Amino acid sequence: MKNRIKELLDDVNQLAASNQEDLEALRIKYLSKKGLISELFTDFKNVANEEKREVGQLLNELKNAAQSKINDLKDSFNQSDKNEQHSDLTRTADPVLLGSRHPLSLVKHQIIDIFSRIGFTIAEGPEIEDDWHVFGALNFPPEHPARDMQDTFFIEQNPDIVLRTHTSSVQTRVMTTQKPPIRMIFPGRVYRNEAISYRAHCFFHQVEGLYIDKDVSFADLKQALMYFAKEMFGEHTQIRLRPSYFPFTEPSAEMDISCNICGGEGCPFCKYTGWVEILGCGMVDPAVLENCGIDSKIYSGYAFGMGVERITNLKYQVKDLRMFSENDIRFLKQFESAH
Ligand code: PHE
Fold first, then answer.
1. What pLDDT digit, counting tens, does each position of 157-184 carry?
2. In what order do the strands lie in the sheet containing 158-163?
3. Is the CB of residue 211 less than 8 Å from the CB of residue 302?
4. What CATH number should be reported for the domain whose range is 103-338?
5. Does residue 249 line the site of ligand 1, with CB under 6 A?
6. pTM of the predicted model as reported, rounded to 2 decimal places
7. Is 201 in the pocket of ligand 1 (CB under 6 A)?
């Protein structure tokens, strides 16, 4: 009997419970009417008289130890319950989780906003396009090597239908259906047959700009782009135009801005040059105007096209392009407070 009591005393001292239910089970096991300790009390009448005093004391000790251990455990639960309940009294009882805007939408809307302040309106066009709108009208004749600049997805049954590789196809749509003056931007998704990696994806987003009127000059283009760069990246931002080539603009240029991550000092993002490329642009080639039924002797125009992912990276430094299309809530939640 004495050994049994000591055994139970050891057990009782080591009791642990991780929740209220476990604790209740322990209470029943040791302290209820049919519990282990009551059993010992029942057996107590069989203890020899000369041992009764000592065993009785031990038994009482065991019972008290069990009772206080269970009480202690109960208290510790109550305590943590209280902490939880009262940690923030202002919390909504039944919170409704709000979604957040996707970073690409945020930036797209910023771009739209900036250009709409200087009179640009918006148009959209189809993502599945015919060859003429994407290439033909824009001075990419069949077999022209410039078509290799953009790896194209073709629709198998009909090679004349492609997934547009750039939003310049919306230029074609607008110029063939509207009369100048045209001052518009075209946001949209484009597709290129590229291996997916942290720096390339088979689809991405562009915003195209087009302005056609009488006497539009390269100086107008430069001014509009400078305004955009400063609005988007801050008053201190500088731009630089480098000569480039696109079949549908002449002359053509690529625009860099002073790296807004290092302020032009040089960092890994700008490959220590202090400049990052953000868009392609140029004066609409007169042949393109003519292809679309606009008299190039009366009208001239400029066009530009930028990648929304690239601009977003510059603003938010997202290191892996794939994050934009994976819908990982931990990534998206970080943009909750942005507008
Ligand atoms: N469409 C070109 C591209 O995707 C960008 C561009 C648009 C260049 C308009 C000049 C004028 O690379």
1. 888 999 999 999 999 999 999 999 999 9
2. 128-130, 158-163, 154-155
3. yes
4. 3.30.930.10
5. yes
6. 0.72
7. no
